[in-house]
Amino acid sequence: MLEARNLTISYNERVAVSDVTLTLAPGEITALIGPNGAGKSTLLRTLNGQVRPTSGAVLLDGQSIEKYTRRTIGRRIAVVAQEAELRFPVTVLEFVLGGRFAWASNSGWGWETERDLRIAAEVLNETELNELSERLMNELSGGERQRAVLARALATEASLLLLDEPTANLDLSHQATLLALVRNRCDRRQASSLVITHDLNLAAQFADRILLMKNGKAVRSGKPDEVLTPELLHEVFDVEVLVDAHPVSGAPRVTPVRRS
Amino acid sequence: MTVALSDQTNVIAMRRGRVTLRKTLISCAVLAGALLLALVLLSLVGSEPLPARASLCSLLSFGSTSCGLTQDQFDILFQIRWPRLLLAAAVGGSLATAGASYQALLRNPLAEPYLLGISNGAAVGTMVALVFFGSNEWSRPLLAFAGSLIATLAVYRLARGRAGASPERLILAGVIVTTFLSSVIVFVTTMMDATRIRSFTFWLLGDLSGTSKALLPVTITIAIAGTIALTLNARSLNLLMLGERDAFDLGVEVGRVRIIVFVVASLLVGSSVAASGSVGYVGLVVPHLARLSLGSDNRINIPSAALGGALFVIVADTIARTIIAPRELPVGAITALIGAPLFIYLLKRA
After folding, report:
1. A109 to B235: CB separation less than 8 angstroms, yes or no
2. For the residues of A152-189, what is the DSSP string, one character each?
3. Helix crossing, B298-322 with B21-42: angle to 10°?
4. CA gap B246, B89 in Å, rounded
5. Given an 8 Å threshold on Cβ–Cβ distance, is A108 in contact with B236?
6. Residues A152, A173 contacting (CB under 8 angstroms)
7. Residue A176: CB partners within 8 Å, gap ≥ 6?
8. B281-295: string of b/e by CB count within 10 Å (b at 16+)?
């Protein structure tokens, strides 16, 4: 279980995140929403131990994350970030096997075990990339690449998934497929996920909880219908919205009306 | 059931395409065999022709019998050509290994000790050693190491922007460091006496003719140990090659690996520059060919580049010492003739 307690993160004078408390419970997807510059990505980077909080603490199973080695964290927490530019040719399989690094008995030279290969095969299947496994990453479409990035994260077998706008470059059907994969991981293996997204309706559909942030502060945290209210969304995004129930799922559905 | 079956076919299919220990050992064995063969054959080539049969016989006995070679021929073979070939191999292996590791760490296929000014850093170190501690042979590799480490850190700091180092920015930083250090070299050169200047200019271009008996074992040991040390970090480098942040997320101790690469690669560049001056482009050409034929996995790439670099420089040096015999060209001129066009090609593709 991953907890953030009263996290404050400031760079020089600027406060990026201010007094945020958050718990990622097993089996749950938490959506992190808010305008650009709200501190969402900084918060995610802090949960992974990459950014040190100015005050407050990140606890992994009750212990400060700073007490763990990078390899242990690599086995427990997987990050799906916006992909970096690839400058060397690697195959999809090589890329996905990168997710097994933290499990190697010898971190530098070690070779992939049968188990590593089996897990890679499983996640390639899950993400429907098995036919592309020999292809080079830079030959793939944006959507396929994003799935490969998720496949690598799933290959780590981490029980905590942190996803930074995983659906940003994806078309409608791939957005749903990708989040279904995350949902699946949470349901079957009691994993917990934190997903940063700008798509409020997607958040409403997939998330168990939503954390709404603005200017580094947590404005509200709760179930989708508690957070996605016209008043709160107006306060945070400065937009008039209409919120009704989705005709099929019943989840809140947000439609912008006009700018106030 | 179908899922399990297709998983199994996948695992089998994967074994084919991926780099494995077996594939790595085969690649290294083939290259090591080629290197050994080239060493033997090229030791027979030169301005003074040696009888092939007698030389081979003597080589196979590791010099214990002369097999009919005259004393002069015997000395040429064992006192001049073999030390020089071994040094060429050590220098080539060191530079190619350093190049491959810099490329992976800096995520830049154009990174190369010579182009980044790191060789120049080592050259300044060597020259300072020659001017101030001329009698002490050990001071040269030590100060060359210090020089290359300082140049490495300088380039790294200069190139690193907020969004990481772009390939162009890194090369620009290299140009700045190179030109700055060139001025320092000119400055130090003017402090030398005129008779030594010519041999220095030659040495700066990369020259293997002044093989030092005392430093040869050191250069070879560093080449082998450095290659092993960097190969042992190859899996981390595979992830760093895709992005520092991704590597960190996946469990790589980024800071530790970076220090290892900087120190070990500087040691490799320092020891080869102290022995032979700045032989350029080896670290660019060889790792590129390795990637082209073996893929991007550093676990196979680094050791293969080391052996390939050794092969490349012994061939280049043989060309350098025979093409206008009895006069010699600096080996760096030959490697640059091959490397510079490739660099332009790679820059266009990047």
Report:
1. yes
2. HHHHTT-SEEEEESTTTT--HHHHHHHHHHHHHHHHHH
3. 10
4. 36
5. yes
6. no
7. none
8. bbbbbbbbbbbeebb
Pick B239's closest partner by Cβ from A79, A98, A110.
A98
**Which residue in A has a C-alpha nearest to residue B254's C-alpha?**
A70
Please give the Cα distance from B19 to B295 (Å, whole number). Answer: 8
CA distance linking residue A128 with residue A121, whole number of Å: 10
pLDDT tens for each residue of chain A, 260 residues long: 899 999 999 988 888 999 999 999 999 999 999 999 899 999 999 999 999 999 999 999 999 999 999 999 999 999 998 766 788 889 999 999 999 999 987 655 788 889 999 999 999 999 989 899 999 998 888 888 889 999 999 999 999 999 998 888 788 888 888 889 999 999 999 999 999 999 999 999 999 999 999 999 999 999 999 999 999 999 999 889 989 998 888 889 999 887 55
Closest CA to B6 of A100, A133, A130: A130
CA-nearest of B305, B214, B235 to B265 is B305
Alpha-carbon distance of B146 to B27, in angstroms, equals 34
Helices (DSSP H) in A19-66: which residue ranges?
A: 40-47
- The whole-number pLDDT of residue A13 equals 83
Contacts of A50 in chain B (CB under 8 A): 245, 248-249
Query: What percentage of chain B exceeds 90 in pLDDT?
Result: 43
Distances (CA, A) of A243 to A176, A204, B167: 21, 11, 48
**Contact B88/B314 with Cβ under 8 angstroms?**
yes
Contact A134 B13 (CB under 8 A): yes
Partner-chain contact B250 A101, CB within 8 Å? yes
CA distance A197 to A215: 16
Cα pseudo-dihedral B266, B271, B273, B274, rounded to 10? 130
B318 contacts B39 by C-beta, under 8 angstroms = no
Neighbouring-strand partners of residue A196: A32, A164
Q: How far is B175 from chain A (nearest CA, A)?
A: 21
What pLDDT digit, counting tens, does each position of B171-209 carry?
888 889 999 998 998 888 887 777 777 777 778 888 887
pTM of the full predicted structure?
A: 0.89
